[in-house]
Amino acid sequence: MPHHQSYPVTLRGGGGGRVVFCWPQFYPDNISRVMDVPGFEAAFGIHPSQAARVMSRDLEKLGMLLLSPKVSALGEIGLDGQNGVDMGKQEALIRQCLAKADSSKPVILHIRGRWGRMSS
Q1: CB 71 within 8 Å of CB 65
Q2: Could you give the domains of the chain?
Q3: Which band of pLDDT confidence, cut at 50, 70 and 90, is reported for residue 8?
Q4: Span 48-61, average pLDDT
Q5: Which residues contact 79 (CB under 8 A, 6 or more apart)?
Q6: Cα(103)–Cα(39) distance, rounded to whole angstroms?
Q7: Residue 71's closest CA among 52, 97, 45?
Q8: Dihedrals φ, ψ of 72, to 5°?
Q9: What is the dihedral of CA 65, 67, 68, 69, to 10 degrees?
């Protein structure tokens, strides 16, 4: 199953965890499907591999989702030095996502091959 389609369709309580949605085209239409399962939380972000194709409507939807008290975190967002996407576009995407963030919620970072870049 492709990475971006691998989130569980049916969640069962008991173990719990955080389901991360980072490809806007696969955001669920109804987050209650995730949030109503005991022990599970949801995080929403935009993966750095999407930086070259992200649209304003994706950022608008992310902003609306992050306003929900049912969403526990922003993520995953970050920098990926191995995905072939322009680093300037990835950096711009991080800034745009962080501008939508609620400062009381954690941020889930995706950093691959760019730790030094994140500290500058």
Answers
A1: yes
A2: 18-118 (3.20.20.140)
A3: very low
A4: 95
A5: 48, 87, 90, 91, 94, 110, 111, 112, 114, 117, 118
A6: 23
A7: 45
A8: -95, -15
A9: 140
At 72, list the tokens. Answer: 């526990």
* Continuous H helices in the chain: 32-35, 56-67, 87-100, 115-118
Position 33: which residue type?
A: R
Tell me the pLDDT tens digit for each residue of 15-29.
778 889 999 998 987
pTM above 0.90, yes or no: no
Q: Which amino acid is at 1?
A: M
Percentage of residues in the chain having pLDDT higher than 90:
51
Instruction: Dump pLDDT digits (tens) for 33-50.
Output: 667 777 788 899 999 999
The DSSP string of 75-93 is EEEEEETTS---HHHHHHH
Residue type, 22: C
Token digits for 1?
């199953």
* Alpha carbons 8 and 89: distance in angstroms, whole number: 30
